[in-house]
Amino acid sequence: MATTKFRHVFGGLWGFATSCKKNSSTPIGSRILQRDVEKEEFQYASILCLSKYYSVFVVRLAIMVMLAILIGLLTILTWHFTKIYTTKSLNSLAYDLRYELLQRPILRMWNILNSTSEITMAQVKLSQYVIRSHGNLTTQENQVEQMYEAMRAVTWALFASRKALNSITVKYNNGFVQAFHRDLKDNNTFYIYSDLANYSIGASASSYNSDINYSSLSSQESWNDHDNKSAVWYRQPLDPVTGEKIGKAMQIAPEDSIHIAGLSQVPDGVASWRVVVSKFTDSPLLSAALPVWDASNKSIVAVVGVTTALYSVGQLMKELVELHSGHMYLTSLEGYLLATSTDVPLLTNSTKPPKLKMAVDCENEVIRLGAEYLKKSSGNKFPPSHEVHVANVRLGHDRYYIDSFFLNLKRLPMVGVIIIPRKHILGQEDKRAFKTLVILISASMCIIVIGWVCILILTNGVSKEMKLRAELISQLEARRKAEASSNYKSQFLANMSHELRTPMAAIIGLLDILMSDDCLTNEQCATVTQIRKCSTALLRLLNNILDLSKVESGKLVLEDAEFDLGRELEGLVDMFSVQCMNHSVETVLDLSDDMPKLVRGDSARVVQIFANLINNSIKFTPSGHIILRGWFENPNPCSDNANHLMEEKNLQCAQKTRTRQHENHAKRTSKRDNKAILWFEVDDTGCGIDPSKWDSVFESFEQADPSTTRLHGGTGLGLCIVRSLVNKMGGEIKVVKKEGPGTLMRLYLRLDTAGDATEQHCLVDIANNGLVVLLALHGNMGRSITSKWLQKNGVFTMEASEWNGLTQILRELFHTRNSAGINNDFDLHYPIHESLKSKLLSIQEIKNPVFVIAVDIGLLDLSTDIWKEQLNFLHRYVGRAKFIWVLNHDTSNTIKMELRRKGYMMTVNKPLYKAKIVHILEEVVKERNHEMQKKNMDELHESDYTHCDAASSDDSDISESGPCNPVKSEKVEQFHRLSLYRINNCLIGLTDEHSEANNTPKKEELCQNNQNSPKSLSLEQDYFPREAHQGEDSESRGKEEHRIIGGSARPVNGKKSLEGLRILLAEDTPVIQRVATIMLEKMGASVVAVGDGQAAVDALNGLLGVEDFRRDSNLNERNTRSSSSQTEILSFPSYDLVLMDCQMPKMDGYEATKAIRKSEVGSGVHIPIVALTAHAMSCDEAKCLEVGMDAYLTKPIDFKLMESTILSLTRRTIS
Amino acid sequence: MREKEKERKEEISKMDVVTQMQRQLIQYTSSLFQEGFLDDQFNQLQQLQDESNPEFVVEIVTLFFEDAERLLNELSKSLQVEQESIDFRKVDAQVHQLKGSSSSIGAQRVQRVCIAFRNFCEQQNVEGCLKSLQEIKQEYSLVKTKLETLFKMEKQLFAARGSISR
User: Fold this and answer.
1) Beta carbons of B122 and A31 less than 8 Å apart
2) CATH number assigned to the domain comprising residue B87
3) How many domains does chain B have?
């Protein structure tokens, strides 16, 4: 009940509160107020929580109290009822018992009375008979004597038959007395008679009769007394059985005699009863008297008296109450004791003759007290036929039951009293009841105590729980605060990212401008360069810190998009190789063939991981090599021969491979659906890390050796970011023990493999084509890895590490073939190794071999002019072998020119990794096939290294853009477009440095106009290699082969980067509109500016329509529909790009973009849209990308960033 | 000869004047940057100025003045106290525009006040908004006078240079 009440109250409160909250929160839309409301709500919730617990506590308490009360009540009730009922039943039982008990002696009494009266009656009848039979003989003495004799016999007979009789007396009217007496004490029987003084019975009888009738009683008494006194009495003992006289008659005094019933006792001639006492007995006697009438029934002849001792009644009573230890007594109506159950004397001995005692004078205390009690309670007048039943009377020390019955006998009313100690009847019961009560009370006490203890414990628990809850609440609050503060932190960082990066970008940009200025002195130039370097470093550091905080605050959301892992890593190695070569360190990429080509994940972050690792390695590796190994869930791919064998088999039967790989793949990834574990190792030969620092190097601002900071710089953030990112991708990174000097970092990433992970190698073309590759490369590691890989794929390889080795092999190869034995003297100087010999022999077995010689330009002696001689020497073999020149990034132009002059078109930039080799070899194979078809074809196959570069990093697309799966390539393209901005941001630090370090060759690398499709590549192409070459991919592969890229060094700045682009600018603020327009125009683009989103959509829609129209009518130029814009209206057939402000009147940028994308559906057109926004938050970025924009620029507009973004987006559409 | 010398001297003195003016201009500009009236965006604008549009900066800044004045008028209109309910969204949009344009010319002090203004707007704080409006007006007039002075100086310099080259 209480609980529901509480609940009700709380429910009411809650409802009220919520309604309050609703009322208060609805009108206020502000975020801050809402936050306040939330806070209040939170506090309220905590209060509610507390009060709830208090209520629970109270409820529990109440329940316990109620329980205790209930138990107590139950106990008391049980006790009460049991007690009452048992007492009642016992009482009734006791009553019955008492009644019964009392009834017995009364019955006995009654019996005694009855028998006495019967005997008296019998005696009377017999006497009458005898007297009648001797009638009229009164005068004659002998006849009288005779009659007395007969009387005596009759009386004896009667007396003898009744043993209980005390005496029978017959007193004749003439004064003669005949009596039989039985002395109960000594069991003697006596015959008592008087001396016969007068024989006239009748006369005396008449007088007697008249006396009776007329005389006063007193006179009669006196007569009688006189008679008696005057008479002489005798007592003769008799044999108690036979009645024979056994002794001599003794004369006794009349007063000594027994009580003789006289005429006085029958005053009105009827039977009378009385209790008498005799001096022979100590107990009262009951005597009955009856007159004997004569024959005529007119006069009394004699009086018969019968006395019976009441002793037996007392005896019976004694017996009866003996068991119950009670007391019983009979009193006369006046209160004289007749019989008791005790042995106390009933007669007062003090007086002569003895008299009956009153009950109240009884020597027995209990009886006396009982009698007194009765007397007190009912007064002297004992109510006739009224029974007294009193229970629980205190007599003396004990309690007694007192019951009295009234026995109404004629002339002798009697009262029977029974006193039974209560203890006897209810003693046990009382004890039990007491015990029960005690037990019950103690039990309930126990229960209450236990209950309280329970409550105490419970409440203790509750209070503890409440404390915990309170703590929890406070902790929640603390957590909320912490979250809020971290929120502020991340917000702060997000703001900072903008605030910090923008000025840095501006600084760097301005420095670039300054550096390109010609009028700087050398000193200034050096200073500016230094500043630029520092700025770049600062930006990188900034980016690192921001990345780290982003990861740590959990804000970093990994992108989930498909990307080509191999290509990313190749690009990375390309980038770093330049830096490495300056350090004379070899960079090798060694990816196992079973690596899935396409994986899903955040490409930018993956690249960042490896960029950081490689950067680190380069920093600490003064010489040697850096190897980036990668394999697919295989602990040891490089030394696992079984795996290699399997791979070889795979190559032989591609179909089988596919199935098996699929099986393997399924096995590996069955547990985690489609998640592949990719292992990577970055192995360097640097100074290494002390094993004790292997764990700590991944902590932030931690470097293995603090002293290196001075030497190498760095903040120690790189590895921390790496670890965070790796962990975020579900992987781990650790430093692994390595043989030899250096560090071996091993990590694995858990990436989703793209649906069709069983990629096909294009090596089928290369293998079994009789290719013999001579690798004359400088770097040992790279060469051996490449060679091993080629051999594994069925290509015969030979290796040479320096010029002499190369010449020797060349001699062996070609001179032994053409003219054996010429080179004898040469052999003497350079003995051929056995292994080489066997190789040569095996080569000779190859039918129609194609020799491919990859020559590192570093093998030539470039310091002097000897290289020209060496070149000429090699040129001798040009007909017999294909030469591939592996160039360094700093290879001078003269050498390149020389090579080109000599007609070597296959040049490739270091590092030489698989994709490049595959591409080159494919080219070679194709060329050979081509030659075989058209023997006389003079066309030179030129292949610029740039092209190779491009192709290599694009090789996945080459294979993909074939007819087999165009859909996929498109998908990839889509993804690239989406991830563009991110990549841009991410790589800016790296690429900046890269481009800066590699300034000169980069410029040279820039592509020029193609004959087929005029295009301009700028510096940005290297920032986004894939994007840049996407356009080329869309070209057919056939073209690629014959494409001639002419010219060498091109001026970069002379050309406007956005030449020919038509850009639609949607911006409402006139200032920004103007600025952006000028900027774009400065870059060479043509700009149409509109004032709002609607105008932009209209402009585009109109153009779409125009395009359709143009397609039909071949109309090449048509003015664009003029927008309502106020500034500038230019006419262009179509737009290449839209710059869209996000916040505009009428229709904002998001809406406009949605509308544009909607209208594009089905037409296959995708116009790049770049968002312009003043918000620098990532959510805005996400929103922009979500509505279909391709990239994202923040205001104020950064010149360079805009340029690069636009370029990257327009590259593919230009072609 | 003498005349020539005189001319030379004149020229030299003119050159001195020009260099002085130039120095003054540079000093003034740097003071503007130091005091935070302008930021590097203004530099970018100056970078964009070339032979094809020699008056670019002036043009842009004039545009900014027009735009800002219009916006300020609108703002003070929409923030009138006697108005029953203030359309904060509209105010926000206007301030946003002003922020965009001021950031585009590099008037960063105005831009900063705009940011504060927008915060007040978000809180629907009328007093804060009015305060910010006053601040913006003040900053705007300040930057306007500064820029006008700058342009004047530039013009003078240009004129002086022109006289020399002539």
Assistant:
1) yes
2) 1.20.120.160
3) 1
